[in-house]
Amino acid sequence: MGMSNAQGLAKAILNGFDAFFGDFQNVTLGAQTRFEKADWQLVHATMSHRLEMYKKKVRDVVGMAEGIVGSPLNDRFLWREAKAEYATLVETHSNYEIAQTFFNSVYCFVFAHEKVSDLHSFVVAPDLLPKSLNDEVIFTEYPVTDDLAAGVHAMLLDTCFSIPFENLDRDVERIVALIEKILPPRLDKNQQIKTQVLNSLFYRNKAAYLVGRIVTDNEMLPFVFPLLNNEQGGVYVDTVLFSPDDVSKLFSFTRSYFMVDASVPSQYVGFLQSIMPQKKLFELYSAIGFGKHAKTVFYRSAVTHTAKTDDQYVIAPGIKGMVMLVFTLPSYDYVYKVIKDRFTPPKDMTRQEVKDKYKLVKRWDRAGRMAETQEFNNLAFNRRRFSEELLAELHKEAPSLLESKGNALILNHVYVERRMTPLNLYLKDASEEEIYSVMDEYGNAIKQLAGANIFPGDMLLKNFGVTRHGRVVFYDYDEICPLVDCNFRAIPTPRTEEQEMASQPWYDVAPADVFPEEFRLFFSGNRRAREVFDELHPELYSADFWRNLQEQIKAGMVEDVFPYRRRYRFPRQGGL
């Protein structure tokens, strides 16, 4: 018996997903070798490559499917039938939820994200972790005995690195001392206690992370061992993270994606959510590299939240942007950003150039200092939920992106980003202690972005946000560029009184020229913030600082960026 076009299309898409997932896993499996060889340049190149694999496979599947069907794929009735066939095919698939997202991606590619409905794709689904169809045990359980050292020793040896630990006994001793200091007050010895460690390590940038949990009758306590390569053929434990907040920061929306060998990602997401219950499912899928499925889950969670609330979308607090119009739903922790049709002078760029900047951020090491964005095309909203002020602003600033259909307001292109308190607003009510902390964070954010070869361009306080953990994060990307592309210069010394008094630069300025001495202008209107910044980060005003950093990057330097406080780190030499 032959097969129908719908069956052929469904099978082609599932084969494409399985091929993508296999390639994704194979790239991920190489993370351990790259870590052991300390090949940090290859680590970043491979991360960018893995991000491109999904779109390429979607394009490939469309080409193959047209050959199988024998005609163009723009028949929606065909997709309606194909969806039913596909649902049957993936019913027993270990990763059916991600496979459904892949089907959606192929459909959206064919129809350019227009008229997406649950009739033709998998739009409606519960905002829940899927029920596992696989009985694979993803963690190893270690017995809790009075001999803590033996258990820790076993955990570290089970990492199975091909290079030795720098000093295994020292690391075990340090970990045990920390456990005995921190955990006993939180544990009741009369309870049953289990220690469970995920079988696969989490690799990102220059580190590998062993992730586990202590399970008691009443709660699950997380722990993470960050493992580093000393670049001389040895591994060492850098610290231990026990606090749920510290572990949450490790999986922050401001950091690039982990590489972790998870044959059933939903099981790993379930484990992670057990130790970080405040994290949303889409954040955890995104953290382990499944960005497209994270986008699907985010959309479903947003629809669910909107259905349960009745507040209105409003213009986001803060100074209006020159390039972006930003709005939010007060009851939801995210903002929506649309590119204006016309930019406020002196901004001089195209819509496509702005999009390219956001794509650059997606593929770069965000160093814990840039917010992840989700990009949507043809996103539909209930127009009645929009405030009159916001509707007027949208029609004024971005009319080309708007389409109305009854009560539906469709935005042709939208970025969604975690909501933060703009730094300029945070400073208005900050105490002296908070000013010192946040301005130190602001300077560190600039330095860490620079260390990742990113120059923010426009460093106005309004372009940075403060997270609930007090971290400062950059979120306005329209002027970013690679740091090595900038020409950092000192302002020439005036030779005449006319030059000294001139209101405009009397010297030549090329497009790539940057004058760090002018950074003080970013603090106009906030004298106290400037004074603290001058005290804490004066080197950022020096062109030599930036030029030296450029030379280091060109020489292949990859800066250490720790997703935890430096004071947590174990001493590099000696005892405890």
Description of the molecule:
This protein has 576 residues and is α+β, with helices and mostly antiparallel strands. It has 18 helices and 19 strands. The radius of gyration is 26 Å and the shape is globular. The model has no long low-confidence stretch (mean pLDDT 91).
The average pLDDT value, as a whole number, equals 91
How many domains in all?
Answer: 4
Low-confidence stretches: none
How would the global form be characterised? globular
State the end-to-end CA separation: 72 Å
> What is the strand tally?
19
Q: Mind telling me the C-alpha Rg?
A: 26 Å
- What fraction of residues sit in β-strands? 15-25%
The computed structural class is alpha+beta
The main pleated sheet reads as:
6 strands, antiparallel
Number of helices: 18
Approximate helicity band: 40-55%
List the helices and strands and how they pair.
Blueprint (H helix, E strand, L loop, with lengths): L4 H25 L1 H6 L3 H30 L6 H14 L6 H16 L27 E4 L5 H10 L10 H15 L11 E5 L3 E3 L2 E9 L4 E10 L5 E3 L6 H7 L14 H11 L5 H7 L3 H18 L5 E2 L8 E5 L5 E6 L11 H13 L9 E10 L5 H10 L4 E4 L2 E11 L2 E2 H6 L3 H20 L2 E2 L8 E3 L5 E3 L6 E2 L4 E2 L8 H5 L11 E2 L12 H10 L6 H12 L22
Parallel strand pairs: 18-19
Antiparallel strand pairs: 1-2, 2-4, 3-4, 4-5, 5-6, 7-8, 8-9, 9-12, 10-12, 11-12, 13-15, 14-17, 15-16
